[in-house]
Amino acid sequence: MAIKSVLLKPIGDAIGDAIAHTAHLNQLKSANPDLVIGVIVTERNRDIFAYSGLVDKLLEDKPSTYITQCNKWDLYLDFQPTYTTKSVILEKLLSPKYIVIFNKKDKKHYNIETVKNYNFACPQNDTTHISDYLNNTILSSYLDTQKAEYVLENQESIRFDVLWGGDKPRILLAPQGSTRQIPAKELAELLNQLAPDLLERAIFVLTNTVDSNIYFEELISYCSDKIKIKLSPKTSIQEYIQLASSADLIIGVDGGSIHIATALQKKVLAFYARNMQNFFRWQPRGNSHIPYKAILSNTESNSNNHTCDFPMDKAAEWVNGLFQNMENNIP
């Protein structure tokens, strides 16, 4: 089949979802630079796709879009996890030449047996990384598996230089996600174990999200007086990308901030619940040459929100080694 245009419907509109999909877009664009790529977006994820540099058309997720885009797309990649009455109707209005679906959870009236609107069903294993989904489809023979990595254009600017305060090691702390966080006491345990010479030179900035003022006060109450921590101002998505672009290391919990950092090819220390299905599917996928460390909680859990009880001694050892190598110019 001759494919000149591809429209992607994301698995969800979270920031992390959007970053993960840039791996698919990168594979497609690398295989055919002339391919026209479109993504159905919401206000929440629009900027991520815009700053990927991979999308030709950003289409608002509303019924009129599906009507105006009728018969205009060769291939529709439907990553939505379930069928709904609305999605079935909208895809009928869209009428692409071919539809590829992935994991669709069975519902009482809607499943892949009762809804036959697709051309290719490509269910994925529970442990398959989200970035690898296209490698298990009819498209796989045309794609480079090495291109399945997160992509985001670096937005570094001088606007956050005042916040960082000069030429010092810059460590961005992102311990709070939309549904999970690293306990402030545990994060302080990590920071307090960092090498004295690093603490003397480094500046830490805490990202500003919901209830970050409370988290900030709790964090500094547990930290040594030698640790210099600032609270970031509130940021838009674009501003947050600029802030992350200006950091040397991002330390954070499983979520959008970690995925953004990985896409920007930043050094990352990430904390995940010991839920292996979630970890295998959602651990960051970046450049293999960029230092990255994942720390899992000590206790297993069926919830990916169980982000506590971490071995912070191992985390501190990695950070100390990282900056020691940076000083010695060891990659």
From TrEMBL:
<dbReference type="InterPro" id="IPR051199">
    <property type="entry name" value="LPS_LOS_Heptosyltrfase"/>
</dbReference>
<dbReference type="GO" id="GO:0008713">
    <property type="term" value="F:ADP-heptose-lipopolysaccharide heptosyltransferase activity"/>
</dbReference>
<protein>
    <submittedName>
        <fullName>Formamidopyrimidine-DNA glycosylase</fullName>
    </submittedName>
</protein>
<keyword id="KW-0808">Transferase</keyword>
<dbReference type="InterPro" id="IPR002201">
    <property type="entry name" value="Glyco_trans_9"/>
</dbReference>
<dbReference type="GO" id="GO:0009244">
    <property type="term" value="P:lipopolysaccharide core region biosynthetic process"/>
</dbReference>
<dbReference type="GO" id="GO:0005829">
    <property type="term" value="C:cytosol"/>
</dbReference>
<dbReference type="Pfam" id="PF01075">
    <property type="entry name" value="Glyco_transf_9"/>
</dbReference>
<keyword id="KW-0328">Glycosyltransferase</keyword>
